[in-house]
Amino acid sequence: MAGRRLAGIGQLLLAVAGFVMVVGWFVLLALEIYDELVNGAEPRSVARLGEAGALVFIAAWLWSLVTSISVLREARANELKSVVPPVILLVVGLVLFSTGAAAAPARFVIDDEAYVEKVTEASARLLQDGKLKSFDLLRGEIRTAGFPITLIPLAHQKLEAPELYDRLRQSTLAVGSYYKCPDCGQWHFNSSAGFVVGEDGLICTCCHVVQMEDEGVKESYLVAADDTGHVFPVQSVLAADPEADTCFVKVNASGLKPLPLRVGARPGERVYCLSHPGGYFFMFTQGIVARVNHKRNEVLDAHGQTNGLLTRPILFLNVTTEFAPGSSGAPIVDEAGNVVAQVASIADAGEPPAGDTNGPPSPSVPIGFCTATEEILRLAHPNFMATHQTALSNAPAVRPRLHSPH
Question: Which of 46, 144, 181, 340 is geometrically suited to a Cys-Cys bond with 265, CB 3.0 to 4.6 A?
């Protein structure tokens, strides 16, 4: 600032000096002309003073011009400094916002009616093309022989619940019956659940999903659908354990994303379930393992009927994770997405009304029974349970009132 003030004073003095010299030149010129006219004096040149004054004045003007240009440039630079950072911040903010918006996963929104309609229409096309296999044929394939599968490594990184939901959705299917209704004559889809255990279309679901027969239904087919409504025909039953109520079925698909199978779940562990209770598709619930127990079920025949016999002791997890009819076959997973059990049945804990031994308990507390992964692994490794006794519970066998969440 002091330098600019001195420059301004110098420019002013120089301009005044030039102006004085030019005015002096005019005065001398006028006196010279007067002297020539009145006194007849010889002319003398006084142009040097005027030229010098003009040069001094021009020098002052040029100096002022240069200074003015410098000041303007500095002012412009200061203006850019004050304006550019906010612009840059705005641009950076917009970029970060758009990047964050693009990185955030899209929220999955299910329309149950539209989903069922899509699955039904796709199943109709598959039936027309002769690609569906009837329940009668599939029931005939139920056998207790094992089927070796390639297990994927366990997951160790715990996921946030929304991330776990997205992960399970990639591997959980709606497995159910595409059937012709005996009442209305229309075709419907009635869903249970299942999950992927092999990339080549290997699905694990409950055995009773294949065995159950709906009264009056004459024509029905087993299909599986992913979260987009894409339908895969169930081609065969590869292995089944009716006592543990679990089985492997093969669907016509490739590139599916399997879930790892983990044994040894303990009471108190947090667990999650993705299932389709009551036709409300892809319902996500959480809870804990309440206990690990052995239980003997009633033996079911090839048509899902009981004959009064009891199974061997089956390893189950009781969980507080909520599920309902329509959830059969769904995975029960830990926080990393490892399957620790499969939804099997629901028991009503309580006393039946007085004088009515067949009535539902009142008050009724639903208790979820889930087939432990140890039992599922029997299908792939028949001697698995014998070599993993440390994962088993010594709880006494019980016979609660059960119904399957089919």
Answer: 340
CB 317 within 8 A of CB 376: no
Measured CA distances, 287 to 70, 75, 284, 364, 402 (Å): 74, 67, 11, 19, 21
Percentage of the chain with pLDDT > 70? 70
* pLDDT band, residue 369 (cuts 50/70/90): very high
Quote the tokens at residue 320.
């507080």
CATH number for domain 112-403, candidates 1.10.1040.10, 3.40.630.180, 2.40.10.120, 2.60.40.10: 2.40.10.120
pLDDT at 42: 66
Beta bridge partners of 288: 270
Structure confidence at residue 365 as a pLDDT band (50, 70, 90): confident
The distance from CA 290 to its chain's CA centroid, rounded to whole angstroms, is 28
Per-residue pLDDT, averaged over 15-38, amounts to 71
Indicate the DSSP class of residue 134: B
The whole-angstrom separation of Cα 29 and Cα 404 is 126
- In this prediction the pTM is 0.69
- 213, 206, 250: which is closest to 232 by C-alpha? 250
Q: What is the pLDDT of residue 260?
A: 97
Exposure class string for 53-82: b at 16+ Cβ within 10 A, else e: beebbeebeebbeeeeeeeeeeeeeeeeee
The angle that helices 2-34 and 47-103 make with each other, rounded to 10 degrees, is 150
CA dihedral 273, 207, 209, 270 (to 10 degrees): -10
What average pLDDT does the segment 159-187 reach? 95
**Radius of gyration over every alpha carbon of the chain, rounded to an integer in angstroms:** 45
Instruction: Dig out the tokens for 349 from the structure.
Output: 């804990």
Distance of alpha carbon 71 from its chain centroid, rounded? Answer: 58
Per the structure block, which two tokens stand in for 275?
A: 């299932």
Q: In which element (H, E) is residue 15 found?
A: helix 2-34
Q: How many CA atoms lie less than 13 Å away from 134 in the CB half-sphere?
A: 9
The arithmetic mean of pLDDT across residues 259-270, rounded, is 97
Q: Where are the domains of the chain?
A: 2-103, 112-403
Q: Is the dihedral of CA 14, 16, 18, 21 positive or negative?
A: negative
List, for residues 39-84, the tens digit of each pLDDT value.
666 666 767 776 776 777 687 667 677 677 776 677 676 665 554 4
